[in-house]
Predict the structure.
Amino acid sequence: MNFIQKVFNGLEWKDLVPPLFYKLRSKFENVTGRRVGTARRLHYARMPDEVSPAWVVDVGAADGAMARAALDSYPSCKVVCFEPCASTFTEMKNALSRYGERVRLIHAAVADYTGETQLHITTSRFANSLFPQSEKYKEENPAIHEISSETVHVVSLDSLDLDLPPRSDGILKIDVEGSEMEVLLGGRKFISGKVDWIIIELAFARRTGDFFLRILNLLDEYGFEIANIIDMSQSGWNQCYVCSLDAVFRRKKRVPAEDK
Protein backbone atom coordinates (compact mmCIF):
# COMPACT_ATOMS: atom_id res chain seq x y z
CA MET A 1 0.00 0.00 0.00
CA ASN A 2 1.55 3.29 -1.14
CA PHE A 3 1.41 6.60 0.68
CA ILE A 4 -1.72 7.86 -1.14
CA GLN A 5 -3.58 4.62 -0.44
CA LYS A 6 -2.64 4.83 3.23
CA VAL A 7 -3.94 8.40 3.45
CA PHE A 8 -7.32 7.59 1.87
CA ASN A 9 -7.74 4.11 3.31
CA GLY A 10 -11.05 3.82 5.19
CA LEU A 11 -12.40 7.13 3.94
CA GLU A 12 -15.80 7.33 2.25
CA TRP A 13 -16.76 9.80 -0.44
CA LYS A 14 -18.92 11.75 2.03
CA ASP A 15 -15.83 12.35 4.18
CA LEU A 16 -14.47 14.50 1.36
CA VAL A 17 -17.54 16.75 1.11
CA PRO A 18 -16.96 20.18 2.71
CA PRO A 19 -19.08 20.83 5.84
CA LEU A 20 -20.47 23.91 4.10
CA PHE A 21 -22.40 21.63 1.73
CA TYR A 22 -24.32 20.02 4.58
CA LYS A 23 -25.04 23.39 6.18
CA LEU A 24 -26.39 24.75 2.90
CA ARG A 25 -28.44 21.61 2.29
CA SER A 26 -29.94 21.81 5.78
CA LYS A 27 -30.74 25.50 5.30
CA PHE A 28 -32.39 24.78 1.94
CA GLU A 29 -34.51 21.98 3.44
CA ASN A 30 -35.62 24.13 6.38
CA VAL A 31 -36.56 27.09 4.19
CA THR A 32 -38.30 25.17 1.40
CA GLY A 33 -39.71 22.24 3.37
CA ARG A 34 -38.18 19.86 0.83
CA ARG A 35 -35.49 17.26 1.34
CA VAL A 36 -32.70 17.26 -1.24
CA GLY A 37 -33.08 14.18 -3.40
CA THR A 38 -36.74 13.54 -2.55
CA ALA A 39 -40.12 15.09 -3.27
CA ARG A 40 -41.24 15.09 0.35
CA ARG A 41 -42.67 18.34 1.67
CA LEU A 42 -42.96 20.28 4.92
CA HIS A 43 -42.60 18.13 8.05
CA TYR A 44 -42.56 14.93 6.01
CA ALA A 45 -39.29 16.04 4.43
CA ARG A 46 -37.70 15.52 7.84
CA MET A 47 -38.98 11.98 8.32
CA PRO A 48 -36.66 8.98 7.79
CA ASP A 49 -36.38 7.98 4.13
CA GLU A 50 -37.53 4.44 4.84
CA VAL A 51 -40.87 5.58 6.28
CA SER A 52 -43.65 4.95 3.74
CA PRO A 53 -47.04 5.24 5.45
CA ALA A 54 -50.18 3.59 4.15
CA TRP A 55 -52.12 6.38 5.84
CA VAL A 56 -51.88 9.67 7.70
CA VAL A 57 -54.47 10.91 10.20
CA ASP A 58 -54.40 14.72 10.33
CA VAL A 59 -56.03 16.07 13.50
CA GLY A 60 -56.44 19.83 13.20
CA ALA A 61 -56.06 19.94 9.43
CA ALA A 62 -56.90 23.66 9.08
CA ASP A 63 -56.66 24.64 5.40
CA GLY A 64 -55.23 21.25 4.40
CA ALA A 65 -51.62 22.33 3.86
CA MET A 66 -50.14 19.44 5.85
CA ALA A 67 -52.61 17.01 4.30
CA ARG A 68 -51.51 18.09 0.82
CA ALA A 69 -47.90 17.69 1.87
CA ALA A 70 -48.62 14.13 3.03
CA LEU A 71 -50.51 13.23 -0.14
CA ASP A 72 -47.74 14.62 -2.34
CA SER A 73 -44.92 13.17 -0.23
CA TYR A 74 -46.41 9.66 -0.12
CA PRO A 75 -48.29 9.05 -3.41
CA SER A 76 -49.78 5.73 -2.28
CA CYS A 77 -51.05 6.84 1.15
CA LYS A 78 -54.53 7.90 2.20
CA VAL A 79 -55.23 10.82 4.54
CA VAL A 80 -58.02 11.27 7.09
CA CYS A 81 -58.55 14.93 8.06
CA PHE A 82 -60.33 16.37 11.09
CA GLU A 83 -61.26 20.06 11.13
CA PRO A 84 -63.99 21.59 13.35
CA CYS A 85 -64.31 25.17 12.05
CA ALA A 86 -67.04 25.40 9.38
CA SER A 87 -65.40 28.00 7.14
CA THR A 88 -61.96 26.41 7.39
CA PHE A 89 -63.44 22.97 6.69
CA THR A 90 -64.96 24.29 3.45
CA GLU A 91 -61.63 25.81 2.47
CA MET A 92 -59.86 22.52 3.19
CA LYS A 93 -62.47 20.53 1.27
CA ASN A 94 -61.96 22.67 -1.83
CA ALA A 95 -58.17 22.47 -1.53
CA LEU A 96 -58.16 18.66 -1.30
CA SER A 97 -60.88 17.88 -3.84
CA ARG A 98 -58.37 16.95 -6.54
CA TYR A 99 -57.11 14.00 -4.48
CA GLY A 100 -60.43 12.18 -4.74
CA GLU A 101 -60.85 8.97 -2.76
CA ARG A 102 -57.39 9.27 -1.20
CA VAL A 103 -58.88 11.74 1.29
CA ARG A 104 -61.56 11.34 3.97
CA LEU A 105 -62.79 14.55 5.59
CA ILE A 106 -64.43 14.62 9.03
CA HIS A 107 -66.04 17.87 10.19
CA ALA A 108 -65.32 17.61 13.91
CA ALA A 109 -62.91 18.44 16.68
CA VAL A 110 -61.02 15.61 18.39
CA ALA A 111 -60.76 15.22 22.17
CA ASP A 112 -61.31 12.56 24.85
CA TYR A 113 -65.12 12.63 24.67
CA THR A 114 -67.95 12.83 22.13
CA GLY A 115 -70.57 15.55 21.98
CA GLU A 116 -70.49 19.28 21.35
CA THR A 117 -68.42 22.19 22.62
CA GLN A 118 -67.47 25.76 21.79
CA LEU A 119 -64.59 26.45 19.40
CA HIS A 120 -62.86 29.76 20.05
CA ILE A 121 -62.47 31.48 16.68
CA THR A 122 -59.52 33.84 16.26
CA THR A 123 -58.11 36.22 13.69
CA SER A 124 -55.97 33.34 12.39
CA ARG A 125 -57.46 30.08 11.12
CA PHE A 126 -54.40 28.33 12.51
CA ALA A 127 -55.06 29.54 16.08
CA ASN A 128 -58.66 28.42 16.63
CA SER A 129 -58.85 26.37 19.82
CA LEU A 130 -61.15 24.48 22.17
CA PHE A 131 -59.51 26.51 24.93
CA PRO A 132 -59.73 30.28 25.49
CA GLN A 133 -56.51 32.21 25.08
CA SER A 134 -54.37 32.22 28.21
CA GLU A 135 -52.73 35.42 29.40
CA LYS A 136 -49.37 33.97 28.39
CA TYR A 137 -50.66 33.26 24.89
CA LYS A 138 -52.03 36.81 24.54
CA GLU A 139 -48.70 38.24 25.65
CA GLU A 140 -46.70 36.15 23.18
CA ASN A 141 -49.18 36.53 20.29
CA PRO A 142 -50.48 40.12 20.47
CA ALA A 143 -51.65 40.09 16.84
CA ILE A 144 -53.97 37.11 17.39
CA HIS A 145 -57.18 37.58 19.33
CA GLU A 146 -60.53 35.86 19.67
CA ILE A 147 -63.37 37.27 17.58
CA SER A 148 -66.22 34.78 18.07
CA SER A 149 -67.13 31.24 19.03
CA GLU A 150 -68.77 28.36 17.18
CA THR A 151 -70.54 25.23 18.38
CA VAL A 152 -68.72 22.20 16.98
CA HIS A 153 -69.10 18.44 17.05
CA VAL A 154 -66.47 16.54 19.07
CA VAL A 155 -65.30 12.94 18.63
CA SER A 156 -62.51 10.82 20.06
CA LEU A 157 -60.21 8.71 17.93
CA ASP A 158 -61.30 5.59 19.80
CA SER A 159 -64.98 6.33 19.13
CA LEU A 160 -64.52 5.95 15.37
CA ASP A 161 -63.78 3.02 13.09
CA LEU A 162 -61.32 4.59 10.68
CA ASP A 163 -60.65 1.22 8.99
CA LEU A 164 -56.88 1.72 8.80
CA PRO A 165 -54.36 -1.15 8.77
CA PRO A 166 -52.06 -1.48 11.82
CA ARG A 167 -48.27 -1.45 11.69
CA SER A 168 -48.09 0.16 8.25
CA ASP A 169 -45.91 3.18 9.13
CA GLY A 170 -49.13 5.02 9.97
CA ILE A 171 -48.61 8.66 10.95
CA LEU A 172 -50.79 10.61 13.39
CA LYS A 173 -50.34 14.37 12.99
CA ILE A 174 -51.75 16.57 15.76
CA ASP A 175 -52.00 20.38 15.63
CA VAL A 176 -54.86 21.40 17.92
CA GLU A 177 -53.73 24.55 19.74
CA GLY A 178 -53.75 23.30 23.31
CA SER A 179 -55.89 20.14 23.39
CA GLU A 180 -53.06 17.75 22.56
CA MET A 181 -53.47 15.81 25.81
CA GLU A 182 -57.20 15.34 25.21
CA VAL A 183 -56.58 14.00 21.70
CA LEU A 184 -54.05 11.49 23.04
CA LEU A 185 -56.24 10.40 25.97
CA GLY A 186 -59.17 9.82 23.63
CA GLY A 187 -57.07 7.73 21.26
CA ARG A 188 -55.37 5.25 23.59
CA LYS A 189 -56.58 2.14 21.73
CA PHE A 190 -56.09 3.60 18.24
CA ILE A 191 -52.63 5.01 18.95
CA SER A 192 -51.33 1.97 20.83
CA GLY A 193 -52.69 -0.44 18.25
CA LYS A 194 -52.19 1.23 14.88
CA VAL A 195 -49.94 4.30 14.93
CA ASP A 196 -46.18 4.06 14.31
CA TRP A 197 -45.26 7.76 14.08
CA ILE A 198 -46.66 10.89 15.71
CA ILE A 199 -46.03 14.46 14.56
CA ILE A 200 -47.37 16.81 17.22
CA GLU A 201 -47.29 20.53 17.89
CA LEU A 202 -46.92 21.22 21.60
CA ALA A 203 -48.34 24.63 22.48
CA PHE A 204 -46.57 25.77 25.64
CA ALA A 205 -48.24 29.18 25.52
CA ARG A 206 -51.64 27.47 25.70
CA ARG A 207 -51.02 25.13 28.62
CA THR A 208 -48.73 25.65 31.58
CA GLY A 209 -47.37 23.59 34.47
CA ASP A 210 -46.27 20.02 33.81
CA PHE A 211 -47.99 19.89 30.40
CA PHE A 212 -44.89 18.80 28.46
CA LEU A 213 -43.90 16.18 31.00
CA ARG A 214 -47.42 14.72 31.00
CA ILE A 215 -47.32 14.41 27.21
CA LEU A 216 -43.96 12.64 27.32
CA ASN A 217 -45.12 10.27 30.06
CA LEU A 218 -48.36 9.42 28.27
CA LEU A 219 -46.62 8.70 24.96
CA ASP A 220 -44.05 6.60 26.79
CA GLU A 221 -46.96 4.64 28.27
CA TYR A 222 -48.35 4.20 24.75
CA GLY A 223 -44.98 2.84 23.60
CA PHE A 224 -43.45 5.90 21.91
CA GLU A 225 -40.19 7.81 22.27
CA ILE A 226 -39.18 11.21 20.96
CA ALA A 227 -37.26 11.05 17.68
CA ASN A 228 -36.85 14.64 16.51
CA ILE A 229 -37.68 18.30 17.08
CA ILE A 230 -38.65 19.67 13.67
CA ASP A 231 -39.58 23.26 14.36
CA MET A 232 -39.65 25.63 17.31
CA SER A 233 -41.33 28.98 17.92
CA GLN A 234 -39.64 31.25 20.46
CA SER A 235 -40.27 34.61 22.10
CA GLY A 236 -38.42 37.13 24.24
CA TRP A 237 -35.98 39.83 23.23
CA ASN A 238 -33.30 37.19 22.61
CA GLN A 239 -35.63 34.32 21.71
CA CYS A 240 -35.11 32.76 25.13
CA TYR A 241 -38.60 31.31 25.66
CA VAL A 242 -40.22 28.41 23.79
CA CYS A 243 -43.80 29.15 22.70
CA SER A 244 -44.38 25.92 20.81
CA LEU A 245 -42.49 23.14 19.08
CA ASP A 246 -43.23 20.41 16.56
CA ALA A 247 -41.96 17.04 17.71
CA VAL A 248 -41.77 13.61 16.10
CA PHE A 249 -42.35 10.49 18.19
CA ARG A 250 -41.73 6.95 16.98
CA ARG A 251 -42.85 3.58 18.27
CA LYS A 252 -40.14 2.07 20.45
CA LYS A 253 -40.38 -1.33 18.86
CA ARG A 254 -42.76 -3.17 16.63
CA VAL A 255 -44.98 -5.75 18.27
CA PRO A 256 -47.90 -7.75 16.87
CA ALA A 257 -51.06 -5.67 16.90
CA GLU A 258 -53.85 -6.77 19.19
CA ASP A 259 -56.87 -8.36 17.59
CA LYS A 260 -59.47 -5.74 16.99
Summary: The CA atoms of residues 34 and 41 lie 5 Å apart. The chain has a mean pLDDT of 85. The chain has one domain: 57-251.
